[in-house]
Amino acid sequence: MKIEKFSHHFVVSAYNQVEKEAILKFVLRFAETSFDRFGNKVIVRTYAASTKSRKEFRFHINSFDSFSLHIQERGLIVPDEDVITYTLYEPVKVVYGKLQKDPRDYQVPIIAFNLMPSPLAKLITLQPGYGKTFIALATVAASEQRFVLATKGGFVTRWLRDCCGDDSVLGLINEDIIVVKGSEALKVVIQLALTDQLEFKGLLISTNTLNNYYKHYFDNDGDMSEYGGLHPVALWQLLNVGILITDEFHMLIHMNFIREMYNHVPKTIALSGTMIPDGPFMKLIHDTLFPKECIAPEPAYTKYIAVKALFYGIHADTKEIKCFRNAKYSHTMYEESIINKPKVLKRYTDMLLQMGVNIYDREGRHEPGEKMIIYVSTQDMATRLTDIYKAHFGDKYIINRFVSLDPYSHVEDSDIIISTPGSLGTAHDVYKLRYTLLTTALGKEDTNIQLLFRLRKPTWNPEVTPEMYYLVNREVKKHMDYHYRKRELFKPITLSHIDLETPFKV
């Protein structure tokens, strides 16, 4: 077998059948499993890569030692001459102007950490509002290298504002930045680079565009003729990129992990509000990506949020509310089940309305301009609840839904926003957000942390205490399990956490 080692991954190829069987057993270490509706164990996704014909396998570089031990235990030996290590290229030098503002005291050591030559991969996990964006771009400026920023398509515009303009971090002009959204745009960029016609300081690219690029490599068994024949591993060298930044790394953890299987770049910086592994398998993935030495120093949490759990029950005439899909709790199914029961739906939405009134509308509960977000699980429920709130409040407050393709002005211009964790749970800073009401039962620790810290420290009024409320159906075991998790999770990072019994039943 042949092994090729790159900066962030290694490739195994030219193996015989015995060696292939050993490799496939190693692949299983990185196979996430679940159970189907019949109780059968199935592979959900694999944190490794290959070509469609399985003529090669790709693994994270931090698993190389365990791979070597794995094949040795099976009596297989790879001669030194069959292990090729590729050195890194020298990225093009870029001169940036002076930063538009100075870093805060706690940001200075993080920037210094990012500038260290090793490890090549860095992870910044900061409390939301502590300036991950500024730290990343300050690192770029100090490194004097070209950068690429990979982010969800909906966040590209926000990053463009952070890079360009008088009020931005870098103070660049729009012509300094290339925006790539879609495969055709990436093909154009590659062709211009191949013909030495590309000049830029930074490139913003959607994660979906990158994912489709690597998927094309898999689907076409390594044939990249549609992309100018450019192998994915050569992409960043062609663009002379020194730093690859990934925004909200945790949101697309599998996609971002797979990208590492093709990365060959001097430095990567992953940004995340939190990276708490959910179970032993995800801990393995987390530790593979970011051993302790890869994690930037983090200041202590500032406690400024009060958390309240609101308990409700089930009415005697309520038939079973379905909430399990493929043996896993699904709040989407929970909401869909409620929606399909008109009487239950009426009681449920009446409850959510009254809770919103109690939280936001009582005298002295908020100052002008302060906002509330209500999180539900489905677009259907968001639409229904928005209509109910508008009917109740009339012109008293501006109330809007924010999901999917709704304009961001619905967030900026509203007093009360009805949204979902996926739409407004991360990456958006909502100024003057005073209250959040989480109706969705969630167990994932990183998601709960992200939702908690949508509430920023109230710079507009230091006397204000932001409040997070979350619902618990005391008669649904999973709701209670998630509640206990939240209580332990939030305890060290919040001002207070209290349980409140309500008279509501659905």
Summarize the structure.
With 506 residues, the chain is of the alpha/beta class. It has 17 helices and 22 strands.
- For this structure, what is the CATH homologous superfamily of the largest domain? P-loop containing nucleotide triphosphate hydrolases
Top-tier CATH class of the largest domain? Alpha Beta
Q: What is the makeup of the main sheet?
A: 7 strands, parallel
The outline comes out as globular
Helix content: 25-40%
Per DSSP, the total helix count is 17
> Which CATH architecture of the largest domain?
3-Layer(aba) Sandwich
Radius of gyration: 25 Å
Distance between the termini: 62 Å
The assigned structural class equals alpha/beta
Q: Layout of helices and strands, plus pairs?
A:
Layout: E1 2-5, E2 9-13, H1 17-27, E3 31-35, E4 41-46, E5 49-50, E6 56-60, H2 64-72, E7 83-85, H3 107-115, E8 121-125, H4 132-143, E9 147-151, H5 156-163, E10 177-180, H6 183-194, E11 202-206, H7 207-219, H8 235-238, E12 243-246, H9 253-260, E13 267-272, H10 280-289, E14 306-313, E15 324-325, E16 328-329, H11 331-339, H12 342-361, E17 371-375, H13 379-393, E18 399-402, H14 409-412, E19 416-419, H15 421-424, E20 433-438, H16 445-452, E21 467-473, H17 477-490, E22 496-505
Parallel strand pairs: 1-7, 8-13, 9-11, 9-12, 10-11, 12-13, 14-21, 14-22, 17-19, 17-20, 18-19, 20-21
Antiparallel strand pairs: 1-2, 2-6, 3-4, 5-6, 15-16
